[in-house]
């Protein structure tokens, strides 16, 4: 994305964008299926529109962006039209804190607002990999949350294994959660939480209403192994989704693949995880 960076006060921006006080989306009976486009990062570089069309045909309802927009890098309205035509929505986007600097704030938020993307998640910050550095990141996220709120937008943070290190209640993730407002999304990456030896279900329940989106990724706890495809792993996907629906406020289950086993391609691996997830969730108890 190469937008023109213009400084504007937040309230003027809200006026220019025509945004009032937006409420959070209603949580559906079962969270929707999304996919993080980092999963298919190589394929979207060579065929962006064809790859997204394939993802829609697989049954995904939304996509989460990670900085690549094909030919639409300066045309969010065109990208929104393409998503609409494809039957896709923007679930959220991974956006680094640097893109919210004063000189870039207006262009960044205008791009994503035009795209219809209201949840802007910080994908990582190395300061948050330690308990010592996490409070500063939390303060910056809290300040960003306050700036985005008048625009009807939200921020949040996505974890890796490092944020889950340490005793429960004292991890960098816990520090981030306590230091940010309730409307800041705690986008738990289930795979990284599992690899860190923590229980992802317990963390959904620990912070009610803050798991608006989660990364559904198959990884393995220390000392275990298997195939990193959802349904071929050891994660309790039923228990996780029950917690997501009843406690987490989850709207989007965002499938993510970073490993492609048995010679499978990127879209093929994502498709396998989506099939596996649907098979797992078919085991959920009837209401």
Quick rundown:
By secondary structure, this protein is α/β, with parallel strands linked by helices. The chain contains 11 helices and 8 strands. Helix 4 runs parallel beside helix 5.
Q: What does this molecule look like?
A:
It is a single chain. With 287 residues, the protein is α/β, with parallel strands linked by helices. It has a single domain (27-281), classed as TIM Barrel, CATH 3.20.20.150. Helix content is 39%, strand content 12%. The protein has eleven helices and eight strands. It has helices at 10-17, 41-46, 48-58, 76-86, 102-115, 134-148, 172-178, 190-195, 200-206, 237-248, 266-281, and strands spanning 32-36, 62-65, 89-94, 119-122, 154-158, 185-187, 213-216, 252-255. It has an eight-stranded parallel beta sheet with strand order 6-5-4-3-2-1-8-7. Strand 4 (119-122), helix 6 (134-148) and strand 5 (154-158) form a beta-alpha-beta unit. Keywords: Isomerase, Signal. Residues 1-26 form the signal peptide.
Keywords:
eight-stranded parallel sheet, globular, alpha/beta, 39% helix, 287 residues, TIM Barrel, 11 helices
Number of domains: 1
CATH topology term: TIM Barrel
Task: Report the total helices.
Answer: 11
Number of strands: 8
* Class from secondary-structure proportions: alpha/beta
- From the alpha carbons, calculate the radius of gyration and give it in angstroms: 18 Å
State the share of residues found in helices, binned by percent: 25-40%
Distance between the termini: 45 Å
CATH homology group = Divalent-metal-dependent TIM barrel enzymes
> Which parts are unreliable, with pLDDT below 50 for 5 consecutive residues or more?
1-28
**Main pleated sheet:** 8 strands, parallel
Can you identify the CATH class?
Alpha Beta
| Shape type | globular
GO molecular function: isomerase activity
Protein name: Sugar phosphate isomerase/epimerase
InterPro entries: IolE/XylAMocC-like, Xyl_isomerase-like_sf
Signal peptide: 1-26
């Amino acid at each position: 994305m190469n937008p023109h960076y213009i400084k504007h006060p937040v309230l003027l921006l809200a006026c220019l964008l025509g945004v009032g006080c937006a409420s959070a989306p209603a949580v559906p009976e079962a969270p929707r299926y999304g996919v993080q486009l980092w999963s298919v990062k190589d394929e979207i570089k060579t065929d962006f529109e064809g790859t997204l069309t394939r993802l829609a045909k697989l049954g995904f309802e939304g996509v989460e962006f990670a900085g690549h927009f094909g030919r639409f890098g300066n045309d969010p309205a065109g990208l929104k039209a393409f998503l609409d035509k494809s039957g896709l929505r923007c679930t959220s986007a991974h956006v680094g804190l640097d893109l919210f600097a004063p000189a870039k704030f207006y262009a960044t938020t205008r791009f994503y607002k035009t795209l219809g993307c209201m949840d802007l998640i910080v994908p990582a910050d190395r300061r948050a990999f330690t308990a010592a550095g996490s409070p500063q990141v939390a303060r910056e996220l809290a300040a960003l949350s306050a700036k985005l709120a008048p625009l009807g937008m939200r921020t949040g943070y996505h974890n890796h294994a490092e944020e889950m290190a340490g005793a429960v209640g004292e991890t960098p993730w816990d520090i981030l959660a306590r230091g940010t407002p309730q409307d800041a999304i705690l986008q738990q990456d289930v795979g990284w939480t599992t690899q860190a030896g923590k229980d992802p279900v317990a963390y959904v329940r620990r912070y009610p209403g803050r798991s608006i989106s989660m990364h559904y990724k198959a990884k393995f706890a220390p000392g275990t192994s298997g195939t990193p495809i959802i349904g071929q792993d050891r994660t309790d996907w039923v228990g996780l989704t029950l917690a997501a629906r009843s406690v987490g406020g989850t709207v989007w289950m965002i499938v993510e693949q970073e490993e492609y086993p048995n010679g499978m391609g990127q879209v093929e691996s994502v498709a396998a995880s989506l099939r596996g997830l649907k098979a797992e969730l078919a085991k959920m108890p009837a209401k």
